[in-house]
């Protein structure tokens, strides 16, 4: 069983990895960076912590690898890190099932108004739209998008998708994202965050969606123009939203998204199962070991 | 496939179709009203069913005009006197007292539900009617509403399973109330469906529909228990028949889908929970009476099982002071599994059509054979 700390320290010991990596706690390092810094070869990073700031990285002359947990690497300046001769790894695939499950969980909890019912809303005031047999539009057809498509099919949903490329996934390709937005009852965002996908869903895209449609986001908060989303929800341009990711995380307590009745927000729990977290850390450690020992690195992220 | 959308839509169309195309009543018909069979409807059911009764020209009916408050017992016993047919919902116990109060005219009981544990089938069987024209004894005809709600119930069961296993209620609460700080490694961790064993207690239409929806979540194995093996249904979902004990021992997720009968009453008790895994999730969308709630509370609070999701309880509604409400690892919904306009509308229409067919001595669309 792992130990965990509020702010994940740089060089962490997890269960079986004792023999592989040395352990220092955050506090020790901060108290005496000069003593510890030269020995550090790997950074294990969870939830973008510790931040890979230049001020930190420059302190670590022996650093060989930053092993990030999860699949997103939008928080890392890949070019800068590569210029220091440091490798970057992530854990694709490992988190896909858990994240797809959260996507479906948010979709279903939103569609069946579970949180509203528990907050005391009377059934006669809740508007239900059909779920089984409805149309699910998935934007981003990577590992996670694909698994969401499979799960949607179990509910006889018609699956549309938009992606840079076509894939053989047994779903209907929409080359034009507008087309997907117009036709979908549920829109699921499963893209990476890149300059191209930042603000992908804005006021225009939301206005193309059906007024009965629900937007679900399990990718990154910045993929959505949050201010436009608030306006769209308040005005009934779309019916509801369910978000596992926002910008920032956490949202400020008084953010309008947190008080809209037709919005579900979870605090980025996409990977949060005991099984997935354990596997994710195991893969992070494997990645780090390989880099430290000069072996081929399983999940290296190249800076292009 | 049990719940193929085509088959269900067909059934829903049949259920929703008015049996008698003509609307409105002519003055002649109004004169004949007093001789029309009398029907009592125990709740303000969705308009589809009431429209069918009204426009059939076959019946006159009286209604308890509330959609969320059940008819008081005294009122029910008064209103059923001499009726020919009764359309009820699951909050009314149709037992000896009601049947006696209704008297010998009662020919049809139509319930707007798939469960019929509130109907005393023994008592219904006993009632013999002697038809004036043909001296044949016959019992009261009983209609119910399976199938039209299978999709809705299966969806809600999976929704509840995910909500419970991924702690969505806690998570949304933390997001809204300031518990949301920097992400922590094991915060709000739940249990995943991938590579899990899903156990179904009572394999019927709904159990199969649930399994069909869970299969793409990378479930490793489906197992089920029932009074006897159900090979046809099991084949559809590749499920293995096991004993109740094995169901408890092997299931990572245990979904209760059986009818409430004397045999299944409180079958989910400490005997079952003590055999389950510490990491297991218990889901009940069948009937509250299948669970011993005190034993469930013990099991949840002591960590014998990880979490539970309930759409049904005893009583309904469960008083807010009930200890189960104090548990973070227990999600309780107010019986919303069939709640969607289209489903409840279809149930209402089916119940009305069953009633009219019963009065016409024709086969009902969905009938319980006594």
From TrEMBL, chain A:
MF term (GO), any: glyoxylate reductase (NADPH) activity
| Residue intervals of the D-isomer specific 2-hydroxyacid dehydrogenase NAD-binding domain | 106-270
Mind naming one GO cellular-component term on file for this protein? cytosol
Q: Which InterPro entries match?
A: D-isomer_2-hydroxyacid_DH, D-isomer_2_OHA_DH_cat_dom, D-isomer_DH_CS1, D-isomer_DH_NAD-bd, NAD(P)-bd_dom_sf
Record-linked PANTHER family:
2-HYDROXYACID DEHYDROGENASE-RELATED, GLYOXYLATE REDUCTASE 1
Return the similarity comment: Belongs to the D-isomer specific 2-hydroxyacid dehydrogenase family.
Q: What is the name attached to this protein's record?
A: Glyoxylate reductase/hydroxypyruvate reductase
Give the source species.
Answer: Myripristis murdjan (pinecone soldierfish)
């Amino acid at each position: 069983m792992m130990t965990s700390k509020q702010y994940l320290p740089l060089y962490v010991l997890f269960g079986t990895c004792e023999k592989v990596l040395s352990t220092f706690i955050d506090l020790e390092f901060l108290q005496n960076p000069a003593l510890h810094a030269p020995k550090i070869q790997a950074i294990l990073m969870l939830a973008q912590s510790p931040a890979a700031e230049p001020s930190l990285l420059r302190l670590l002359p022996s650093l060989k690898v930053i092993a990030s947990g999860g699949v997103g690497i939008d928080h890392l300046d890949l070019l800068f890190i590569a210029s220091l001769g440091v490798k970057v790894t992530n854990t694709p695939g490992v988190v896909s099932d858990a994240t797809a499950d959260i996507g479906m969980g948010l979709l279903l909890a939103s569609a069946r108004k579970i949180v509203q019912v528990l907050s005391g809303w009377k059934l006669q005031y809740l508007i239900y739209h059909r779920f089984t047999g409805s149309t699910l539009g998935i934007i981003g057809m990577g590992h996670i998008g694909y698994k969401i498509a499979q799960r949607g099919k179990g509910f006889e949903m018609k699956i549309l998708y938009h992606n840079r490329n076509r894939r053989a996934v047994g779903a209907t390709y929409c080359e034009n994202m507008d087309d997907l937005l117009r036709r979908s009852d549920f829109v699921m965002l499963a893209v990476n965050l890149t300059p191209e996908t930042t603000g992908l869903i804005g006021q225009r895209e939301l206005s193309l969606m059906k007024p009965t449609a629900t937007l679900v986001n399990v990718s990154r908060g910045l993929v959505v123009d949050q201010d436009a989303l608030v306006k769209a929800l308040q005005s009934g341009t779309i019916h509801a939203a369910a978000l596992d990711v926002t910008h920032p995380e956490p949202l400020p307590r008084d953010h309008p998204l947190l008080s809209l009745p037709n919005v579900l927000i979870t605090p980025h729990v996409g990977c949060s199962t005991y099984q997935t977290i354990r596997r994710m850390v195991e893969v992070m450690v494997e990645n780090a070991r390989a880099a430290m020992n000069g072996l081929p690195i399983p999940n290296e992220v190249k800076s292009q | 496939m049990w719940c193929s959308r085509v088959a269900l839509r067909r059934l829903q169309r049949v259920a929703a179709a008015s049996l008698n195309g003509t609307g409105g009543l002519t003055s002649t018909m109004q004169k004949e009203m007093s001789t029309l069979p009398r029907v009592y409807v125990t709740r303000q059911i969705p308009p589809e069913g009431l429209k069918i009764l009204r426009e059939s020209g076959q019946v006159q009916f009286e209604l308890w005009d509330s959609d969320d408050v059940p008819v008081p017992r005294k009122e029910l016993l008064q209103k059923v006197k001499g009726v020919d047919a009764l359309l009820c919902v699951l909050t009314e116990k149709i037992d000896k007292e009601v049947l006696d109060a209704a008297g010998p005219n009662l020919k049809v009981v139509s319930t707007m539900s798939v469960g019929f544990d509130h109907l005393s089938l023994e008592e219904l069987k006993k009632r013999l009617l002697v038809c004036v024209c043909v001296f044949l004894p016959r019992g009261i005809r009983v209609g119910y509403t399976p199938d039209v709600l299978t999709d809705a119930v299966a969806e809600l069961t999976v929704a509840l399973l995910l909500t419970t296993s991924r702690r969505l209620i806690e998570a949304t609460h933390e997001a809204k109330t300031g518990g949301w700080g920097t992400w922590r490694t094991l915060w709000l961790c739940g249990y995943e469906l991938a590579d899990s064993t899903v156990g179904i207690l009572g394999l019927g239409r709904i159990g199969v529909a649930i399994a069909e929806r869970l299969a793409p979540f990378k479930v490793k194995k489906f197992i089920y228990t029932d009074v006897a093996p159900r090979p046809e249904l099991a084949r559809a979902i590749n499920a293995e028949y096991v004993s109740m004990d094995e169901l408890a021992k092997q299931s990572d997720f245990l979904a209760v889908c059986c009818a409430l009968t004397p045999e299944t009453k409180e079958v989910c008790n400490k005997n079952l929970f003590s055999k389950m895994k510490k990491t297991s999730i218990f889901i009940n969308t069948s009937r509250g009476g299948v669970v011993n709630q005190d034993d469930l509370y013990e099991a949840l609070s002591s960590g014998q099982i990880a979490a539970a999701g309930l759409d049904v309880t005893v009583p309904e509604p469960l008083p807010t002071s009930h200890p189960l409400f104090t548990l973070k690892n227990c999600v309780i919904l107010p019986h919303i599994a069939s709640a969607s306009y289209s489903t409840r509308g279809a149930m209402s229409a089916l119940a009305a059509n069953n009633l009219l067919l019963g009065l016409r001595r024709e086969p009902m669309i969905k009938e319980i054979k006594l």
